[in-house]
Amino acid sequence: MGVPAASDAPGGVTILGAPFDYSPDDPGLGPHIGPEAIRAASTRILPARIDSDLDPLRELDVRDGGDVDARPGDPPGGSASLSDAITAVVARGSVPLVLGGDGSVVLAVLRALSQEVGAVAVIHLDAHTDCNPPGEGINEGSSAFWIAAAEGLVAPTASVHVGLRGPGLNANSVRLCEELGYRTVGMDRIVDSGTLAVLDQIREIVGDRPTHLCWDLDAFDPSVAPGVFSPSWGGLGAAVGLRLVRGLAGLRLVGADVNNLDPPADINGLTASLAAQLAFELLFSLPR
Asked: Helix H segments across the chain?
């Protein structure tokens, strides 16, 4: 969106790209080119909101820190680079907004944030729990929140997974998540109770704890976000998703990430455009 490059100035919000994933079939394709696609799409959206006179790009001193040093297929290296970069951002009093990359980016973010503020609350928007116990064939993206709980990076009882549904999500996966202490809100709850009721529930769960917002783009329905790794029908529409983000204003957000954009699967840049709009909307909810 034309923001300046990051500097050593204190405060503000710093954008970081996390161009890595676990097992790309082709090093030129996949979610590791997600940050590039989101940045490109951001040049084509209007940096304003009809219901607000706030200019968060200027008022929050938003700056772009570029992409961290990461190589496709080298998750430990990419994760360490991202954690180091976030640690530096937080040390100068800036709030990190990370563009992924696959869902494993959240672990790197949480590892860095926990050093500064301790165990954080997490609001996780996703079609899946990502709470699977590590095992053969299960990567860190699918186990991110199981690992986060085991490492003491999060406060599970103050954290919530929102938008759960679809193939591959069954009662056992939700039960495993809740046994760790996490709260869950499925799509049926959002449809039946409405956005405002879900926002009230989220606020009650996280309270005033330092909170990280992790938004996996497959929380959206494939009709508005086809370019993700695991599309699942029956998800959030664009209006409802952006309303949820707007409703988080006032929470003690200390970081956020937007992940799981898969540009080769996208249609006319639709998902990248929605991801860019989502990142912009997040700036209205991040603390001043």
From this structure: 34-42, 56-59, 75-91, 105-117, 140-150, 171-179, 187-193, 195-206, 238-246, 270-285
Q: Note whether 242 and 51 are within 8 A (CB).
A: no
**Which of 80, 81, 111, 85 minimizes the C-alpha distance to 96?**
85
210-243 as b/e, with b when 16 or more CB fall inside 10 Å? Answer: bbbbbbbbbbbbbebbbbbbbbbeebbebebbbb
User: Where exactly are the structural domains of the chain?
Assistant: 13-285
At CA 174, angle to CA 253 and CA 24, rounded to 5?
A: 75
* Spatial CA neighbour of 97 closest among 38, 148, 160, 37: 38
* Alpha-carbon span 139 to 128, nearest angstrom: 14
At a CB cut-off of 8 Å and minimum separation 6, what does 136 contact?
Answer: none
Homologous superfamily of the 13-285 domain (CATH): Ureohydrolase domain (3.40.800.10)
**What is 57-68 written as a DSSP string?**
HHHTTEEEEEE-
> Helix 270-285 to helix 34-42 angle, to the nearest 10 degrees?
80
Give the Cβ contact number of residue 142 at 10 Å: 24
What span, in angstroms and rounded, lies between the C-alpha atoms of 156 and 121?
7
Determine contact, residues 213/256, Cβ cutoff 8 Å.
yes
pTM, rounded to two decimals: 0.94
Instruction: Kindly state the greatest CA–CA separation across the chain.
Output: 51
- In 3D space, the residue among 12, 34, 5, 7 whose CA is nearest the CA of residue 283 turns out to be 12
pLDDT tens for each residue of 106-163: 999 999 999 999 999 999 999 999 998 887 666 777 889 999 999 999 999 999 999 9
Give the Cα separation of 45 and 238 in Å (integer). Answer: 15
